[in-house]
From TrEMBL:
Biased composition (Low complexity): 37-46
Ranges where the record places region Disordered: 16-46, 394-421
Keyword terms of this UniProt record: Coiled coil
Organism of provenance: Giardia intestinalis (strain ATCC 50803 / WB clone C6) (Giardia lamblia)
Keyword Coiled coil annotated: yes
Protein's UniProt name: Uncharacterized protein
Coiled-coil ranges from the UniProt annotation: 58-142, 264-389
Recorded superkingdom: Eukaryota
Feature: compositional bias, Polar residues: 17-27
Amino acid sequence: MKPVAISYKPRSIDGSFRQSTISSPTEHTAHAYRPHSAVSGQQSGSVISVGDPENILVRTLEIENRTLREQIASLLEREQLAKVESSSLREQLAETEKRSNSLTDELSSVISKELGDLKLRLQMAQADRDSVTSQFNALNEKLIGTEEDLTAARTGLDVLKTYSLSVLDDFVVAVRELCKDILPAYAPASISSGGLISLARQLEMPAPNIPQNIQACIHGIHGKVYELNVCLGDIKIVTDAFRDTANMVKDRLLKERDTARLHDNEHRNETERLREQLNTLRTDTDVTVRELNHLKPLMKSLETENSGLKAELSALSDKLRQSQGEVNVLLRKVEALEAENTSIQATISVKDDQISELQGAVTMFRMERDEATSRLTELEKNLIALTEDVIEDRSSSRGASMNAARPPPHVSQQSLRGHVEHSKFEPQAIKTTLSPTLSSPKADYENSRLIDMVTNGKLPEDRLSAALAQDRVQRRSSSYYD
């Protein structure tokens, strides 16, 4: 039987390997046996002097089981630390809830007070708005009445303008026809008379603040009166010419009285008729002038009334602008209060978001701890199964290999099997309680390396299974015990 040396490289928590050699006391050159342990922890190298490879493997498993127990104890200690930290976090959360409740009460009292003030101000603003609205409606009704009066005055003025211009046009046409009747060779531009009276072509307004429509009406009437004056001057000239002609005819008729008496009487009758027409025309002209003189005071009174209405309208407009400015100030105050209310609500929502984030972190911590607990349970089960596989491999390798190592005479199979069976790791019941609070990320805890090992797929049971499988393959080969 050859002594066997086992090179053992346990892996520490930080990932580094340390070499440990297990050999017999009398051996100087040994066969390399390197199962890779997947258990993380601090373990010093030890030398085991045995002659049986199975016993060496059992001792190795015992060492690994002891290391696993130590590691589980450290995990339990870390769980206790996590419980302490969770209790402190729970206390902090309770204090935070108390503060948030007090802040909520203060905010609700302040908000209720501010809302009461806002309601009172809003009622006052509504009352002011109603009064301003009633005043504005009254002013609007007065303005509508004033506009109706102005419209009626404009309509009357337009009717007066149309009637006066039409009448004056008729007079001008009639006078020109009369001039043609008196003098057939008469043309309006053939006689340049200065008119019956002294009248300027352009009328100068005595009052500068007369509206444009009234000025246009007056200028139109003045133009027609000017034309009528020119026509009357033409009539005077034509009449004078006709008188001169009549006198000449009279002289001629006097000379030819005996031969032309009948003709002279006819001319006299015609002259009499023309005189009657001229008198009638003068009478009508006087009536027209009197009507114009009567219309001038009426136009002045209308102008005075219009100026008074304009002044009243400007005063009402000033009052309306002042009321609108007050309403705008009240609206700005209401908007400022609404903005303050919005900011208070935003503060409350931020507090709610912070509380929800704390609850989410608590839920994440619970899930991670439950997952680590389940992984640890599976690891214990796999270790038990691997121990049984080692026992089975030992019995099968004993029958398959002719050069298999025998146990020492003083060690019986029953005692060895009993030792292995009694050395199996019994999983301990781990009491897990759900932690309600968590405030720091996963990397801040002491068991963060273990959590990373579980979540990233670097599981200890996988490495242990691979090492045992490799050992079984080597033991079945013929060169294993050479």
